[in-house]
Design brief:
The protein is of the alpha+beta class. The chain has helices spanning 3-26, 56-100, 116-127, 140-145, 150-177, 183-197, 199-202, 205-214, 231-235, 254-261, and strands at 220-226, 242-246, 249-250, 269-276, 279-286, 292-297. Strands 1, 2, 3, 4, 5 and 6 form a 6-stranded antiparallel beta sheet that branches. Helix 5 packs antiparallel against helix 6. The radius of gyration is 44 Å and the shape is extended.
């Protein structure tokens, strides 16, 4: 081996040992190699790594802001969901009450009990833009305008209001005692309706017409559509015709007409009194199903 090479190795080893001894005596540490770090860039600058998150306080502020926005969005969504759920439940309750023959709550006004026909009449009346718009529960003036004297108007109003109160109390009792929608409830409602319907026998056709309007109930039946090959279509009944009477029986709502067509001898010729273009006329049809679709309205006599 080359003696000069060995001499160099020996000198280097001695230098390393000497440096180690010196560091041990002085307590100093060898310098670490410098590590270059990438320069920090702000997210607004658009420079550097586009996926890099802002450092330090800037990152904390951005994270808190986004978290707050997310929490607000979740809260808004929850409130919307709760509102829609409540509306759906209210609609389900109204449908259930309609099926059971009870009148659903209407805004802040107290509710009573009504037969499904009356409720459908009221709903159709609102849809057709008619109806009793008087702010009072019962429109006495409509009866006075129909020429009914004050004493009879007072009597009719008392009968109507007592029936309304009876319906309220029956519903309240049935709800508290848990027999809403049962046969007992339906019988109680029918008894109240029978007492109220007794007015029909005490009033003339025109007086009863005014009473229905005063109470906000249907007093007009309107033809909505006609089957072309049906008895009504062949006889010439048209959409928009108002049916005033069937076989000399006044018609105020669709159950009246359904009942009238089912009476007497089938296919016997009967007269139907209609209003078309503000003019009354008679149309003759065979007794039985007419083949028409109806809507109702509540209008001043």
């Amino acid at each position: 081996m080359n003696h000069k090479f060995l001499t160099v190795i020996g000198l280097v080893s001695m230098g390393v040992m000497a440096a180690a001894t010196f560091n041990a005596l002085t307590g100093s540490q060898p310098a670490s190699p410098e590590v270059k770090r990438p320069a920090k860039t702000s997210p607004e600058s658009g420079l550097g790594n586009p996926f890099a998150a802002p450092a330090g306080e800037a990152f904390d502020a951005t994270f808190d802001s986004k978290l707050a926005e997310l929490e607000h969005a979740i809260q808004t969504l929850q409130e919307t969901l709760q509102s829609e759920t409540q509306k759906r439940r209210q609609l389900e309750q109204k449908v259930a009450l309609l099926d059971k023959g009870a009148q659903p709550d209407n805004n802040a006004q107290a509710s009573g009990i009504a037969d499904p026909a009356s409720m459908r009449d009221a709903a159709n009346s609102r849809q057709t833009g008619g109806g009793n718009l008087n702010p009072n529960w019962f429109n006495e003036q409509a009866l006075l305008d129909a020429g009914i004297d004050h004493a009879k108007v007072s009597y009719i109003k008392n009968v109507f209001e007592q029936s309304e109160l009876d319906r309220l109390y029956i519903r309240d009792q049935a709800t508290r005692e848990g027999w809403m929608g049962t046969e007992r409830f339906n019988n109680a409602v029918k008894e109240i309706a029978d007492r109220s319907n007794a007015l029909r026998e005490q009033l003339s056709d025109n007086e009863y017409d005014a009473y229905l309007y005063a109470a906000g109930l249907s007093n007009r039946v309107i033809v909505e559509s006609v089957l072309s090959n049906s008895p009504a279509g062949i006889a010439g009944i048209k959409s928009g015709d108002i049916i005033l009477s069937y076989d000399n029986q006044r018609i105020y709502n669709w159950p009246d007409l359904t009942s009238a067509t089912s009476q007497g001898t089938v296919n016997a010729t009967v007269a139907v009194n209609i209003i078309r273009d503000n003019q009354q006329q008679l149309i003759y049809v065979p007794r039985g199903p007419l083949g028409i679709r109806l809507t109702t309205d509540s209008v001043a006599p």
